[in-house]
Amino acid sequence: MGVMDGKVSIITGAGTGIGKVAAVMFAEAGSDLVLAGRRKAPLDGVAELAQEHGVEVEVRPTDLENGDAAADLGKWSLERFGKVDILVNNAGHSSRVRSLRYVGPEEWDSVFKVNVEGVYRLTQSVLANMIDRGTGTVITVSSMAALNPGLLGGAPYSAAKAASLNMIRGMNTELAKFGVRACAIMPGEVDTPILENRPRPPDADDRSTMMQAEDIAQAIFLCAAMPQRTIVEQVVMMPTLRRDTSRDMVAAENEGSVR
Question: Which end of the chain is more exposed for a tag (fewer CB within 10 A), N or C?
């Protein structure tokens, strides 16, 4: 028997990277899954891997920049399975322009819509079900940028991740008495596709010291599998070896400037 037998989990950003690895881990542990992301094809591929473990898997393409779509994802999952035990808010989005001096309002708003509004709307849509049943776990992949804001993550991303972190902390203050647990994971640099949106995408040498998707997925699994009596409120993760980011910082400082 798996530690998640009989559970139903929603995982966003499930088509690649951290979400993909976490989905397979959850399936191995016995959880039925709703896999969400913008593109259907990668989600279908992950669904095939997960179904090899004998669990039910639904693919639900969703643009989490659209708050109504995020809320509909939760509502649809409840209609399909009758409950949601675990929600993994893994989908994230960063801006190309990092500097507060140059980032435009459209790009700023886009980052907040995915990392804050999408998390809020999706989480809210499943809370009543969790409260009614006296159990539920919400895991949100935040970022070290929430704790150490700067050009590497960028002003919009740092601010948005700080907002989502405080949302999760507030959830525990408000909802732990109802059996709802909220967990925030704050990784440093992870070798995932989001890095391609940086002003200077890291090369192979840069990526060689970074954490990998499976490292963060293991932390997600820990938070989800912990006995109900225990909340893992925050997990901070960093690469053991710190690389020189000076070239990245120069590129980030100048991206979007008028020359």
Answer: C
